[in-house]
Write a structure and sequence with these properties.
The chain is mostly helical and about 140 residues long. It is about 75% helix and about 0% strand. Helix 1 packs antiparallel against helix 2. The radius of gyration is 19 Å and the shape is elongated. The model has no long low-confidence stretch (mean pLDDT about 90).
Length: about 140
């Protein structure tokens, strides 16, 4: 995801960044990198947490955020799998890099993006399922 977003940022800011499509591609790439970093930190933190009281068991703090991220990652996974692979859908990047180099960049980076989104969805589903169980002490 970092590589794909970085190449999009490069195409957006080193091209004519005053044009709205270039600006949108650049901002989208920056937001994507920030989102991935925050999501990785969130997953790492939440994966280690468990409920410790009856009040937490009733309110299940953070479960809405986990559910939201799970659904968003699933949606982005579907988009990356079926839509983004169409090279013609990236005119700013094609204009900057050229058709053939952008095809190569997409063929290298998109499978990693697809894997990341799917893996994040599975990790969030495991968190959703396991974080709200009391820890058993043997």
């Amino acid at each position: 995801v970092f590589a794909y977003a970085t190449f999009s940022i490069i195409a957006g800011c080193l091209g004519d960044y005053r044009k709205p499509p270039n600006l949108v591609v650049m901002v989208t790439g920056i937001i994507s990198i920030v989102q991935v970093i925050l999501q990785l930190l969130f997953i790492q933190d939440v994966a280690r947490r468990r409920i410790h009281s009856a009040d937490q068991d009733r309110s299940k703090p953070g479960r809405q955020i986990v559910t939201f991220l799970l659904i968003c990652n699933l949606a982005i996974w579907v988009i990356y799998t079926f839509e983004v692979q169409k090279v013609e859908e990236s005119p700013v990047q094609i204009e900057f890099f050229g058709y053939q180099p952008w095809v190569i960049i997409q063929k290298l980076a998109l499978p990693l993006c697809i894997f990341f989104r799917f893996h994040s969805t599975v990790a969030l589903a495991e968190i959703w399922k396991n974080s709200y169980k009391t820890k058993l002490i043997d």
